[in-house]
Structure formats: structure tokens, C-alpha cells
Design a protein that fits this description.
Layout (H helix, E strand, L loop, with lengths): L1 H29 L8 H13 L2 H24 L7 H39 L2 H7 L4 H38 L7 H11 L2 H27 L6 H21 L2 H21 L17
Helix pairs in contact: 1-6, 2-6, 3-4, 3-6, 4-6, 4-7, 4-8, 4-9, 4-10, 6-8, 8-9
């Protein structure tokens, strides 16, 4: 009986949290017409969400690209498919790892700051003061952040992809176990990574980033108690958004499969002919 009560309490907490987030979304959307009059707040949030997050996104994306290329080099060396490393790095970064890791970094870098700021305003009754003056918090505190993340996430994803692809080319060129030219690397990347793959990653990033900011705003605005609850709200916000990203997608565990699908297609191209011992490489430089 106690276990059932605990399960119902947990389910009630989940439903209540989802309902609170949805209500905040609709309240914020109802003030969308006021966004042009909040241009200064919108620009400030674009700076906070985009520019301040860019360095850590670029650094991590570079190392993700290098690790993907390095591990792909070890794996593909055994059957002579190193020329197709670019396809693995390109697809993995564009469709899965780029959006997912950028969203996680956004949660840690920006989401925590949003939760801390709004939680402190709630604890010290600044939100109540705004309500007393008939100034909705969803209008001036939430709406500019939601609009800014929708604008800045595609920019962050494009930069993350480019930096990750470049990191893979550095490993492909200078690591002896890989040892392919940048021309071959980028030819394979261009051949197998289509524009729709990049767009698919941008769409995922838009949804992930929007959810991160919305949930962090909701947790911050619903903080209750004293100053100690500010830290608890920040921890809870990051845990919730990262957990939701992990539960809503299985992209990280299967990211390598995306690139390996391209590698398998490439293997069929150059291993076809009936004789396994006779392998003819198809170079993307000469076979676009």
C-alpha cells in the first residue's frame, strides 16, 4: 500500500510539473504581440544564450569530432574504408551529437543561470512586486528568453557542426593510424551528409533548447521557501532538463550507428562483386 501511494505521489508530481510548464507556455505565447516592444530584453537574452554559450560549445564540438574520427579510423582500418570517415563524422555531428550535446551544454550554462535568477526573484518577492504592478512575469521574464533560444539555437548548431567536422579533419590528416587527406575526408562528408540531415539536426536543437529554457523558467518561477531553495531550484532544473533530454531521445547511445549506416553503404559500394578478397575502393573525389 505504501509503495502504491509513493507511485501515485510521484505520478501526481510529474503530471503537475507538465501541467505547470504547459500553462507557462500558453501564458507566454499570449503576450507574443508585445515582443517587438521588448527588443532590448530580446537582444540581451540572445547575447546570454548565444554568445556566452558559444566558446564551450565550440570546444566540446571540436573534441567530439576528433574522437569520432579517431575511433572511426581504428574501426575502418581493418576493412580499408578509412576514406569514408568523413561520412561518419558528418552525419553523427549533424543529426545527433551536435543537437544533443549543445542542448546539454545549454542546460548547464544557461538553464542553471535562468533558474537561479528567477528563483532569487521569487524568493525575494520581486515576482510578487511585478504581479502587484500588473506586470506579468511570463511577459517580461519568460517570453524574451523563449524567443531568443529559438533564434540562437540554429546558430549554435551550425557552428558546432562546422567545428566538429574540422576537428575530425585534423585527426584524419595528422594521426598516422587514420592518415587520409582533407580532400578525401571532406569529399566523403559532402557526399553522404545531405542538407536535410543538417536541417533535421536544427529542428531537434530547436525543440531541445526550447524545452530547456521553458522548464528552467517554470522551476525558477515556482520556487518556494528561503535562500537555500535557490540552489535547490538550480540543481532541480538541470536534473530535470537533462533527464528529459535523455528520456525523450536515445540519440547519444546510437549516434555511432548513424555514421556506421553510411559506412555500411560505402562498404557495399566497394565490396560488391562477389569476391570478398577483391576490394575496389570508391573514392568520393572521383565518384561524386
Amino acid at each position: 500500500m505504501g509503495a502504491q501511494f509513493a507511485d501515485m505521489k510521484q505520478l501526481n508530481s510529474i503530471v503537475e510539473g507538465v501541467g505547470s510548464v504547459v500553462q507557462l507556455l500558453f501564458r507566454s505565447a499570449s503576450y507574443a504581440g508585445s515582443l517587438p516592444r521588448q527588443w532590448a530584453r530580446f537582444i540581451e537574452q540572445c547575447y546570454q544564450i548565444g554568445y556566452t554559450t558559444l566558446p564551450i560549445v565550440a570546444i566540446l564540438s571540436f573534441f567530439i569530432g576528433t574522437v569520432l574520427a579517431l575511433e572511426a579510423g581504428y574501426a575502418m582500418e581493418g576493412f580499408g574504408a578509412k576514406e569514408f570517415i568523413g561520412s561518419l563524422v558528418g552525419l553523427s555531428m549533424a543529426r545527433e551529437l551536435g543537437p544533443m550535446m549543445t542542448s546539454v551544454l545549454l542546460a548547464g550554462r544557461v538553464g542553471s543561470a535562468i533558474a537561479a535568477e528567477l528563483a532569487s526573484m521569487k524568493v525575494y518577492q520581486e515576482i510578487d512586486a511585478l504581479t502587484t504592478m500588473n506586470i506579468p512575469a511570463a511577459k517580461i521574464l519568460v517570453l524574451p528568453r523563449l524567443a531568443a533560444v529559438l533564434v540562437m539555437m540554429p546558430v549554435l548548431i551550425v557552428i558546432a557542426n562546422i567545428v566538429g567536422w574540422f576537428g575530425g579533419s585534423v585527426v584524419a590528416r595528422y594521426v598516422s593510424t587514420v592518415g587520409i587527406s582533407p580532400e578525401s575526408y571532406f569529399a566523403a562528408l559532402r557526399h553522404y551528409t545531405k542538407f536535410k540531415d543538417v536541417i533535421n539536426g536544427m529542428e531537434k536543437a530547436e525543440v531541445f533548447g526550447f524545452v530547456v529554457v521553458l522548464v528552467c523558467c517554470d522551476i525558477g518561477l515556482n520556487t518556494k521557501g528561503g535562500p537555500r531553495e535557490i540552489g535547490a531550484a538550480v540543481t532541480r532544473a538541470v536534473e530535470h532538463v537533462v533527464g528529459q533530454l535523455a528520456q525523450g531521445t536515445v540519440t547519444v547511445p546510437v549516434a555511432a550507428r548513424v555514421g556506421m549506416a553510411a559506412a555500411a553503404d560505402a562498404y557495399e559500394l566497394f565490396a560488391a562483386g562477389g569476391k570478398f578478397g577483391k576490394i575496389v575502393l570508391v573514392n568520393p573525389l572521383t565518384h561524386p
